[in-house]
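Dear colleagues,

As part of the handover before I leave the project, I'm documenting each prediction I ran so the next person doesn't have to rerun anything. This entry is a single chain, and its sequence is reproduced below.
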Amino acid sequence: MIFLSDFAFGQKPDADILLKEALYETNVNKDYNKALSIAETALKLAPEYTDVIFLLGRLHMLQGDGEKAKVYLKRVLEKDSKNLDALNYLINIEASE
């Protein structure tokens, strides 16, 4: 696993590395705030990266913010209407309201 602290001497992490770190923080450490911060940085580097957008939706859902989660999940579906994971999360959020 590569961490942000591993980047020295002006090296910048790319969105793929940041996504992996955000997933690690989400799934292993359960540190959703840290994962959210990392994923937001990744999104700034790659604004159209649907995996990052999906993770942001999932993170907001895990933190109980259904409205923000829906914004990101709908954005994923605009780019990939066949993304079943995003659709299922969106359905679950709307069903729980």
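The helical segments are 15-27, 32-45, 50-62, 66-79, 84-95. The radius of gyration is 14 Å.

All the best with the project,
I.
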